[in-house]
From TrEMBL:
One of its GO terms (biological process) is cell adhesion involved in single-species biofilm formation. It catalyses: 2 GTP = 3',3'-c-di-GMP + 2 diphosphate. GO terms for cellular component: plasma membrane. It holds the Pfam family PAS. Residues 77-135 form the PAC domain. InterPro entries: Diguanylate_Cyclase, GGDEF_dom, Nucleotide_cyclase, PAS, PAS-assoc_C, PAS-like_dom_sf, PAS_fold, Rev_trsase/Diguanyl_cyclase. This is diguanylate cyclase. Residues 1-39 form the PAS domain.
Amino acid sequence: MELLVIPVFVLDQQRRVLIWNRACERLTGVAASEVIGTSDHWRCFYNRPRATLADLVLQGRTEEIRQLYDSARPRPQQREGLCAENWCDMPRVGRRCYLAADASPIYDKEGRIVAVVETMRDMTNEKKAQIALEQLATRDGLTGLANRRCFDDTLRAEWQRALRQQQPLSLLMVDVDNFKQYNDTHGHLGGDQCLQKVAAALASEMRANDLVARYGGEEFAVILPNQALKGAAIVAERVRSRIERLQLPNVGSAQPYVTVSIGAATALAAAGEEPQQLVATADAALYRAKRLGRNRISLPLQEPARGTAGRELDATAQ
C-alpha cells in the first residue's frame, strides 16, 4: 500500500489510522507521522469535524452517506462497501479538491469488521470541466443569466411543484423598450453592455429561489415560485423602477433613458393544464403594455381561477 500511486488510508476498529501511504501524503499535504495512531484524519480533508467514508462504514452509519456526499452508491460486488464523491476543503494544501472515494471493509473469520480501506482519486479537473460544460448548456453567454433551455426546464419543474403543493406560480416577461433604436445608436457593443446592466438589475431584485432568464434578444423572463398576484405586482414595479433609475441614455427615444415593459401572469396549476399557457398569457400582457406606451406593467385584474392566468389590467408607471 505504501508504494501504490493511489492515495490510501486504513482505519482500525477504533477508527485509528493504521496506514497513510505516500500518495495520501502528497494529496493531503499531511505526513503519515502526524496521523498514524490518531482519529484526527478528518482534519486532513475538512475544516470542521466530519465523518469520512471509512468512518461511516466502520460505525454502520451508511444511511447518512446521501446527506454528506454529492453522489453515493453501494460498492459493486463489495459487501457493505461504499463509493462516493464530494468537495473537500483540504486545509493543509490550501485548495478545495473534488475527491472520488471507495471504502472497503476487511472482515475476520467471524465476519466482524476489523479495518476499512479507503482509496481516493482526485477528480477536481474533471469536476470543474463538467461544471463549465453545464454552465455552457444552461447559461446565457452574454448576461450570465439562465438561458432559454434552462428556463423551459425550470418552468416545467416549478409547474409540477406548484401542482403538488397547490401553490400559485407567477411569471414576468420583461422587454427592453426601443432596444433596436438603442442598438443602432450605440452599436452592438453598446447594446450588449445595456443588456448586461439590465440583466444585473433584474437579478438583484430576486429571491434565491426565483429564476431570471434571457428569453431571447432583449427579452427576459422571471419565474416566481409560490408568488401570488400581489407579490408579482410588487416585484414587477420594483424591476421597472430600478431599471429606469439606471439612467442609461436612450437618445432619440420618447423616453430619455432605457426603460422596460413588463407583462405578468399568475396561475394555480391544475392537472391537464400546461405551463405554456402561463407564458402565452404573460407574453400577451407584455405586448399590451408596449402598445399602451411602454415603461409600464400589465398585471392580472384578479387572482386567477385554477389552471388560468386571469384577465389583464394595465398598471402605468407613476
